[in-house]
Amino acid sequence: MASVKQARHPATDEITLIDVMGALNDPIRVGLIRVLADEREHGWGELRAPVAKSTLSHHLRVLRDAGVTRTRQEGTRCFVKLRSADLNARFPGLLTAILDAAHHDDVGSHVGLADDSPTA
């Protein structure tokens, strides 16, 4: 019987500022954290970005490896959630500042959820 490979998530005290900032140097990844800031866990299939599925998977892996998100596999489905509490414990106020700046500068607004309605 084959075992499911579990993704490695850095412990809170292993999350570094350089890794977090490096992971957030792409507008798609900033858009993903804007979507995930609702504090809900989302299936990968719910996420919409103007990139191929393999590229979206890469972006999600970068965020996970940096400690920005947590990924959970359930059967063949994967779920992702923003690690807000861990990031706020490690870098108080950083996540809020990033989300505020992203909203102000309209970074990542082209990323959303499958059930998002287009705005007129």
Automatic annotation (TrEMBL):
Lineage, opening ranks: Bacteria, Bacillati, Actinomycetota, Actinomycetes, Kitasatosporales
Q: Does the keyword Transcription apply?
A: yes
- PANTHER family named in the record: TRANSCRIPTIONAL REGULATOR, ARSR FAMILY, TRANSCRIPTIONAL REGULATORY PROTEIN
**SUPFAM superfamilies the record matches:** Winged helix' DNA-binding domain
What UniProt keywords apply to this chain's record, in alphabetical order? DNA-binding, Transcription, Transcription regulation
Where the record annotates domain HTH arsR-type, the positions are 9-106
* GO terms for MF: DNA binding; DNA-binding transcription factor activity
Question: Which organism is this entry from?
Answer: Streptomyces malaysiensis
Under the heading InterPro entries, the entry gives:
ArsR-like_HTH, HTH_ArsR_DNA-bd_dom, HTH_MetalResp_TranReg, WH-like_DNA-bd_sf, WH_DNA-bd_sf
What domain of life is recorded for the organism?
Answer: Bacteria
The protein's name is: HTH arsR-type domain-containing protein
> What SMART domains does the annotation carry?
HTH_ARSR
